[in-house]
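Section 5: illustrative case.
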């Protein structure tokens, strides 16, 4: 290692050399933020010919990012269990979207229908039951499905409600008894997508056996972020999701776990604490693949309209801080003491009197 890099490595430690490149090839070190004394030119040394490679000082935006591997999936997974014993006679296809009024599955040719609502079906709704918000929820669905002629949507189960239930039962080929049991309906907040199915047609099931998993139709990316980096993941923050196809999709952080978990890490077999981060993405942009690998880029810091040089241009100077060698038009170099700032994509923000875009600097390892 030459004298230039020995000094830089000693100053930056493994933050740059050992872990500067993340999973997406992006540098993510905080070692260069605001270090060193206020920038000022050094006394101009005797000019000397330059034999090292050179790079250009550029001006633009510099983004410090963290790239984390994740998976594209669907939001709000839950398991639907049987509410009645019998034989499975009908099942949907995995990946199918089921909307209000459609059957999730059938037992003994009796469909169990999806209706929208937040209150689970926990009792039989029929004439004579005590009034309650679950009655109103049922009536709202009957109206949405076109069966609530003459029904006042409230929390009372009336004769009109019973007649509406019978019309709904006739439409679905069910026994027209005017009663709705937990074996007849599943109340969920919205339409669902069928995930893994746990049974087959012809299976005998009990009243609490898992039948199938369902999810929201919303697309979601999940990542496990190192716990010591959770400060870069804030709810509502925008991120970039790189799809396996190479396409970039915009996302927004919707949830950051409040409790860290510890698990074996596949990259180095060491245990590390992580927090799960959920990122919402557009269903149209994300496509239909489930459990597809993606890479999420989280922005740590952005510096706008700044001068930057390659990190290999930095020199550790004896009095502390960093310097660069600026090459003049005649090919001679002079050392300039610089103040460093943001760091990313292999470049570092530099500030010093007299520096300008287009100047050449020497770099090591080129």
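Designed sequence:
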């Amino acid at each position: 290692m030459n004298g230039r890099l020995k000094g830089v490595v000693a100053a930056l430690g493994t933050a740059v050399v050992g872990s500067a490149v993340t999973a997406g090839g992006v540098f993510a070190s905080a070692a260069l933020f605001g270090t060193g004394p206020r920038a000022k030119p050094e006394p101009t040394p005797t000019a000397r010919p330059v034999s090292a490679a050179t790079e250009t000082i550029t001006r633009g935006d510099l983004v410090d990012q963290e790239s984390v591997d994740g998976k594209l999936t669907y939001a709000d997974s839950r398991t639907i269990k049987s509410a009645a014993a019998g034989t499975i006679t009908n099942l949907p296809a995995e990946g199918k979207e089921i909307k209000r009024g459609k059957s999730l599955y059938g037992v003994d040719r009796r469909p169990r229908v999806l209706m929208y609502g937040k209150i689970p079906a926990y009792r039989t709704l029929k004439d004579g039951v005590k009034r309650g918000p679950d009655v109103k929820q049922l009536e709202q669905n009957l109206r949405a499905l076109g069966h609530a002629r003459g029904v006042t949507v409230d929390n009372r189960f009336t004769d009109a409600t019973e007649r509406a239930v019978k019309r709904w039962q006739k439409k679905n080929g069910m026994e027209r008894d005017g009663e709705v049991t937990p074996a007849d309906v599943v109340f969920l907040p919205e339409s669902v997508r069928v995930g893994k199915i746990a049974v087959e047609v012809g299976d005998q099931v009990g009243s609490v056996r898992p039948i199938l998993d369902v999810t929201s139709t919303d697309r979601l990316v999940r990542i496990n972020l190192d716990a010591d980096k959770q400060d870069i993941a804030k709810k509502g923050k925008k991120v970039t999701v790189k799809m396996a196809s190479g396409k970039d999709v915009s996302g927004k952080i919707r949830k950051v776990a409040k409790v860290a978990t510890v698990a074996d890490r596949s990259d180095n077999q060491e245990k590390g604490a992580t927090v799960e981060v959920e990122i919402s993405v557009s269903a149209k942009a994300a496509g239909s693949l489930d459990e597809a690998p993606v890479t999420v880029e989280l922005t740590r810091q952005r510096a706008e309209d700044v001068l930057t040089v390659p990190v290999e241009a930095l020199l550790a100077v004896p009095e502390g801080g960093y310097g660069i060698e600026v090459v003049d038009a005649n090919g001679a170099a002079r050392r300039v003491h610089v103040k460093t700032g943001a760091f990313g994509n292999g470049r570092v923000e530099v500030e010093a009197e007299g520096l300008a875009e287009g100047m050449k600097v020497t770099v090591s390892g080129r």
